[in-house]
Description:
By secondary structure, this protein is of the alpha+beta class. 23% of the residues lie in helices and 35% in strands. It has one domain (6-230): Endonuclease/exonuclease/phosphatase (Deoxyribonuclease I, Chain A, 4-Layer Sandwich). It has helices at residues 20-30, 46-57, 129-143, 163-170, 213-219, and strands spanning 6-12, 34-38, 60-65, 68-72, 79-86, 91-94, 97-99, 104-113, 116-124, 150-155, 174-175, 194-198, 203-207, 225-230. The strands form three sheets. Strands 3-4-2-1-14-13 form a six-stranded mixed beta sheet, with helices on one face. The protein has a six-stranded mixed beta sheet with strand order 5-8-9-10-12-11, with helices on one face. A two-stranded antiparallel sheet has the order 6-7. Keywords: Endonuclease, Exonuclease, Hydrolase, Nuclease.
Amino acid sequence: xxxxxxxxxxxxxxxxxxxxxxxxxxxxxxxxxxxxxxxxxxxxxxxxxxxxxxxxxxxxxxxxxxxxxxxxxxxxxxxxxxxxxxxxxxxxxxxxxxxxxxxxxxxxxxxxxxxxxxxxxxxxxxxxxxxxxxxxxxxxxxxxxxxxxxxxxxxxxxxxxxxxxxxxxxxxxxxxxxxxxxxxxxxxxxxxxxxxxxxxxxxxxxxxxxxxxxxxxxxxxxxxxxxxxxx
Length: 231
């Protein structure tokens, strides 16, 4: 963190299952103060794997919920970590077959931007259009209780003309990535399905990602969003 600004990296890391060396180079090039991770590694040895992943980036693993996690750099403290489960509805995928997705979640916590408290939140919405809206309402309901400005980032699994993005606008959040270009896929970027949304009076912008196209393509199936926040 420098000059009162905070660097936040929002990134779907594809379960830490692609080229880990390339991913570490991408994250280190971005030099985040806070990293908001979607699709953090899970299953056997979840905490051990997440701590190892954070260490490979030169960061610390401090909070998580479901497949979302928060990592921080030395000198950055996450105050009052927030983690909550998001209920996902049952989805009829095929005739006479009903299934549900893995439980969703959101994770967040307060950090300081200069001397101002700000809440950062990370989420990963589901694949079904109605399910995403259902999940988002749960997240926004909790966000209204923070008492601070907040940054909401994550894999929204939807392009900007969809109802989730419209609902975020109705809530009064600013889409920081409106001119930042597509985020998926990393090998053929053609969709913007990852978002970074900010409440006033907090100021923010998307920074260019200082990593090679080769590393970005190898590191994950998504591209990262590097955000600079200022109070």
